[in-house]
Write a structure and sequence with these properties.
By secondary structure, the protein is mostly helical. Helix content is 51%, strand content 8%. It binds calcium ion (CA) (2 copies). GO terms for molecular function: calcium ion binding; collagen binding; extracellular matrix binding.
C-alpha cells in the first residue's frame, strides 16, 4: 500500500515539474544554460531576455503573416471570369451560358410592376406593364416564341411612358397655333441648355446668335434641334429618331403627334431640314444646315 502512495506522489511531482518546465522560461533553458547560470548570473539573464524577445518576435511575425494573408485574400479574391460579362444583349434580352458559350436569350421574366408610373403605351396604343414587358414581347416575336401574341409585335415599340391616353383630338385651331408654340419651346430648350453649359461650342455660338439677332431666333433653334435629332447624321430625321422629342411630349401636347406627322410632307417617313422648316413655318432662306457633326462622329475629341 505504501509503495502505491509513493508511486502516486512521484507521478504527481513529475507532472508538476513538467508543467513548470512548460510555463517557466527558466525551466525551458537547456542544461548548458543552467551550467552557465551558476557561473554568471548576468549572462544568464541576458540570455533569458534574448530568448523571450525572440519568442515575441516570432509570435509577432506569425500574426503579421496571418494578417497579410487575410488582407491579400480580401484584395485578390479568386474571380471566375464570366463570359457573359463582355456580351452585350439588346433590350429585352439577357446573356445565358449554353454549354459554356454565352448567348442572348429573351428575358424570361420581367419584374412585377406595381408602380403605375412604369406603365408604357405602345405604338399600337396598348398599355403594357413596363418597358421590359414590351421588349420581351418583341424578342419573343423575333424568335417565333410561343409567348408572342401577334407577329406584328416584332415591331412593337414604346410610344410614350404612362398608360395610353384617350387620344384627344387636336382640332384645327390648336394645330394652327402649334408651330408657333413649338418654335418657342425649341428656343427655350436651347437657351436652357446654354445656361447650363450643356451645348457644344458650335451650338453655343448659334444660341448666342439667336439671343442677339431676332431674325435668327427661331431658325437657329430649329436647325439645332433637327441636327440634334438626326443621330446617324444622314441629314434626315426618321420616325425612330423622333422618339426623344415625341415620347416625353405626347402626353402633354396632344398636337405633337399630328404636328410631327404633318412635317413629313412627302410621307417617306423621314423629315428633311426643308420639311422641318416648313412645318415650323420658317423661311426656307433662313435654314442652313449647320450641324456639329464632329460632336457625334468623334465625341472623345471634345473630352
Ligand atoms: Ca437620321
Ligand atoms: Ca419626308
Amino acid at each position: 500500500m505504501r509503495s502505491v502512495w509513493l508511486l502516486l506522489c512521484l507521478g504527481l511531482l513529475a507532472l508538476t515539474l513538467s508543467q513548470v518546465r512548460a510555463e517557466d522560461p527558466i525551466a525551458n533553458l537547456d542544461l548548458e544554460d543552467i551550467a552557465e547560470f551558476d557561473e554568471d548570473d548576468e549572462e544568464y539573464l541576458t540570455l533569458l531576455e534574448e530568448k523571450s524577445k525572440n519568442k515575441d518576435v516570432e509570435r509577432e511575425n506569425e500574426l503579421a503573416q496571418k494578417l497579410a494573408d487575410v488582407q491579400y485574400n480580401l484584395l485578390n479574391p479568386v474571380v471566375e471570369v464570366d463570359p457573359c460579362e463582355t456580351m452585350h444583349c439588346g433590350a429585352g434580352r439577357i446573356c445565358q451560358l449554353n454549354e459554356g458559350k454565352p448567348e442572348c436569350i429573351c428575358i424570361p421574366e420581367c419584374p412585377d410592376e406595381l408602380d403605375t408610373r412604369r406603365l408604357v403605351c405602345t405604338n399600337k396604343n396598348e398599355t403594357w406593364p413596363s418597358d421590359c414587358a414590351v421588349y420581351q414581347q418583341r424578342c419573343w416575336c423575333d424568335n417565333k416564341d410561343p409567348g408572342c401574341r401577334h407577329p406584328d409585335n416584332a415591331h412593337l415599340h414604346i410610344d410614350y411612358y404612362g398608360a395610353c391616353q384617350e387620344p384627344r383630338v387636336c382640332d384645327g385651331e390648336d394645330l394652327k397655333d402649334f408651330p408657333r408654340r413649338m418654335r418657342d419651346w425649341l428656343f427655350n430648350v436651347m437657351r436652357d441648355l446654354a445656361e447650363r453649359d450643356e451645348l457644344t461650342d458650335h451650338y453655343m455660338q448659334m444660341e448666342l446668335e439667336a439671343e442677339t439677332n431676332n431674325s435668327r431666333r427661331w431658325a437657329n433653334a430649329a436647325v439645332w434641334k433637327w441636327c440634334d435629332l438626326d443621330g446617324d447624321t444622314d441629314r434626315s430625321v426618321s420616325r425612330h429618331e423622333l422618339f426623344p422629342i415625341r415620347a416625353p411630349l405626347v402626353k402633354l401636347e396632344h398636337c405633337i403627334a399630328p404636328f410631327l406627322e404633318s412635317c413629313d410632307s412627302n410621307k417617306d417617313h423621314r423629315i428633311t431640314l426643308v420639311e422641318w422648316g416648313a412645318c415650323l413655318e420658317l423661311d426656307a432662306e433662313d435654314l442652313k444646315e449647320r450641324c456639329d457633326d464632329v460632336q457625334k462622329a468623334v465625341p472623345h475629341l471634345l473630352g
